[in-house]
Amino acid sequence: MSIRTLDDLLAEGVSGRRVLVRADLNVPLDKQTGAITDDGRIRAVLPTLGALVEAGAKVVVCSHLGRPKGAPDPQFSLGPVAGRLGELLGAPVHFATDTVGDSARSTVADLADGQVALLENLRFNAGETSKDEAERGAFADQLAAFGDAYVDDAFGAVHRKHASVFDVPARLPHVAGRLVLREVEVLSKLTGDPERPYVVVLGGSKVSDKLAVIEALLPTVDRLLIGGGMCFTFLKAQGLEVGTSLLEKDMVDTCRNLLERSGGKIMLPVDVVVADAFAPDAAHDTVRVDGIPSHRLGLDVGPETVAGFSAALSQAKTIFWNGPMGVFEMPAFAAGTRGIAEAITKADAFSVVGGGDSAAAVRALGLDESSFGHISTGGGASLEYLEGKALPGIAALEN
């Protein structure tokens, strides 16, 4: 793979030049207060932004946040992100209150060397996500006018064929930022020749969301440990009662087929924490998977499962983890996710946390991020990379 890097751009000199940086600042916000609840994605882009600022570039950052419908929506404004980004950079970030309009044009025009501007949410413009190439291209033209060079440091968006990810790099000299480069290097280790045993832990709610990656990984992994809500469809495929637990009925036959051809690689929970309701204060206790009451639902894996999964992880030399083991946001159902995360940190292995809810869980549970080999910023992007799919944002950087 031949991709020019940020270091290549810096070597050419960027002082006084406008550099358009596509970042992934899609951080979670508190619905009541609008406060940022996890700034991990903002921190992840700091090495790239810091290097450009230090080199004297006029840095124009763009990103999406949430899923607005192609028009301004105050609940998805990047305003709070601009404030937090400025705190972390130690200098004010100039915020444009639109994407490519008057505010954006004047904000970019007023930048001095070494200053940073952030444009308003890209998805406030329908051209960002449009499937119409002309509409997307017209928006890309407007964005590209803000830069003399383009840096993609938004790994969490490289699997999207969006204007800022796919079309803008065709219009400007383009390079991969530090974060994107690191993500590709790490994930290529997993798809190349990983040190064995190679153990993958998959959680989350739906089998359908992870089916493609399970299909891609089964031939290459040594063990595949399955927890989270998706485990109940596999348990149902074994003929077990799963009560009112999350269940994808149309995936039961698929799961049965996967189990039959996995050669014993797939490990499922042996006990689960069941509750009367999906609520933080619901009455709950631990049962064997062959004893789930018909009126209760599973919300976490149990301690015996954590012990069994931990034993498999302790033998691993390479680990990939994507998806929590239970509803970790509720303390009563967080022990499974915490136990597996701690087992990963104790293993003498190269470990990769595959973004999304797994990365959020690491931070929410107060675990030491440095004890993992790599925490990805792109849940969907990392899964599609492991599936072997071509990622539009990476392809655009290769051209």
Automatic annotation (TrEMBL):
Protein name: Phosphoglycerate kinase
Similarity comment text for this entry: Belongs to the phosphoglycerate kinase family.
Keywords recorded for this protein, A-Z: ATP-binding, Cytoplasm, Glycolysis, Kinase, Nucleotide-binding, Transferase
Residues that bind (2R)-3-phosphoglycerate: 41, 123, 160
Main location: cytoplasm
Subunit structure and binding partners: Monomer.
Keyword NADP in annotation: no
GO MF terms, alphabetically ordered: ADP binding; ATP binding; phosphoglycerate kinase activity
Statement: the UniProt record of this protein carries the keyword Kinase: yes
Gene name tied to this protein: pgk
EC number: 2.7.2.3
